[in-house]
Amino acid sequence: MLEEILVTNAETLEPLAERLKTFDGFLERLSKEYGLSTLDLVRHLPDEQVKIVDGGKMLELLTDVGEWGAVLFITEGNSVITGMSVELPQVFLKDGYFHFFGEGGFGGHIKENACEHIAFIERHFQNRNSRSIHFYDGDGEPMFKVFVSREVSGEIKTEQVMRWTALREKL
């Protein structure tokens, strides 16, 4: 029985790796199709498209991104995806939670140890080049994502791409 499962998984994952080379849709939907957590699916992206770091780097990372100007902040549930262009406010740790409160009502609390992994992802999404940072919980599912912003022309902002790349290399 275990051998059958391993063979089935190997047969399924090989086509997945090929599919991911050109896939430009929602990773969460594709992960369900393959019976994987989103993080496990992300681990199958080509090496040049993803770098995964420890979730313990969250405060350092959010502090850096807070200096980039407006970014696209995305949260996603089973039935809804919400996003907002926002400058990430200063983040601080107190009483086991990261706290952040900014202009215009954007803010919240994140449990200190909730984020286990962070993925820097560079890929085409819906026919457009994108750079993003995904924060994953202990189940391998995204808590939220931060995308590099776009110019009015639709191109991603060059200065933010440089900051994203520098942060990816630093961590």
Helix-and-strand structural type: alpha+beta
What's the level 1 CATH class?
Answer: Alpha Beta
In the CATH hierarchy, what is the superfamily?
HemS/ChuS/ChuX like domains
> What is the N-to-C succession of helices and strands?
HHHEHEEEEEEEEH
* Rough outline: globular
Which stretches are poorly predicted, pLDDT < 50 over at least 5 residues? Answer: 1-8
Helix content: 25-40%
CATH topology: Heme iron utilization protein-like fold
Oligomer: single chain
Strand content: 25-35%
Number of strands: 9
Q: What count of domains describes the coordinates?
A: 1
The end-to-end span amounts to 41 Å
Question: Largest sheet, described in full?
Answer: 6 strands, antiparallel
- What's the architecture, going by CATH? 3-Layer(aba) Sandwich
Instruction: Give the strand line-up of the largest sheet.
Output: 1-7-8-9-2-3
SS summary, helix count: 5
Radius of gyration: 17 Å
**Please, what is the average pLDDT?**
88
